[in-house]
From TrEMBL:
One of its GO terms (cellular component) is cytosol. Residues 12-193 form the Class II aldolase/adducin N-terminal domain. Signal peptide: none annotated. GO terms for biological process: pentose catabolic process. GO terms for molecular function: aldehyde-lyase activity; metal ion binding. This is Class II aldolase/adducin family protein. SMART domains: Aldolase_II (SM01007). Keywords: Lyase, Metal-binding.
Length: 221
């Protein structure tokens, strides 16, 4: 594929991922999200600061170091560039990063509580461990980005983090798989909150999460 057709196809994938997230009911009332997809080792595509009604020609090209290389970002969203860039720099295997304010997951972020892995979809889509909380910092600030970087180092197999007092950041090999995990995390957060009325959610049997992590480690090697 030529450079321009690769960019166009990847931008189109981000537009379809945004539509899929709305269709799945995981967006907050504001519809706020920013979605990105890797182009190569140095660059990724990033939505411009909104995703409702997004067109493929509105997606920007950004360097993993945070420099805008093509297209335009709304002023506020230049702050979130590094939130995506730090994941691409730290995790070479990551092909897509999605950020939303999905309501139930955000409840855990606001409560500064990690979201345990206690549902089958979370296991199936690869998050066989709790979703950890990154301490609050103004979004895209050095504090927040450093916090994400530290958690990624401490949790080399996590595919998502909660951003304290803010929302959810999920990453995966491509936008569709990341969107599937994001939906599984939001469903898990809803189930976790609902189960509290019934006496509280219960862990998987001992060893279940370790078995899935071992399987995934073998599949990745
Ligand atoms: Zn946000």
């Amino acid at each position: 594929m030529t450079e321009s057709s690769t960019v166009a196809a990847t931008a189109d994938l981000l537009v379809r991922t945004a539509e899929h997230l709305f269709d799945s009911g995981v967006m907050s009332h504001s519809g706020h999200a920013n979605l990105s997809a890797r182009l190569d080792g140095e660059r990724f595509l990033l939505t411009p600061g909104f995703v409702r009604g997004l067109r493929a020609d509105q997606v920007a090209v950004v360097g993993v170091d945070g420099q805008v290389l093509g297209g335009r970002l709304q002023s506020a969203s230049t702050e979130i560039v590094n939130m995506h860039g730090v994941v691409y720099r730290t995790r070479p295997e990551v092909g897509a990063v999605l950020h939303t304010h999905s309501p139930a997951a955000t409840a855990f972020a606001v409560a500064h509580q990690p979201l345990p892995c206690r549902t089958e979809p979370m296991l199936r889509f690869g998050q066989a461990e709790e979703v950890p909380v990154v301490p609050w910092g103004p979004r895209g600030s050095d504090v927040s980005v450093r916090g994400i970087s530290e958690i990624l180092a401490q949790r080399p197999t996590t595919s998502a983090v909660l951003l304290a007092n803010h929302g959810l950041l999920v990453f995966g090999p491509d936008p569709r798989q990341a969107a599937d995990l994001l939906t599984a995390i939001e469903e898990s957060a809803e189930a976790e909150l609902a189960a509290r009325a019934l006496g509280g959610a219960v862990d998987f049997p001992a060893g279940a999460l370790e078995a899935v992590r071992a399987y995934m480690a073998r599949a990745a090697s």
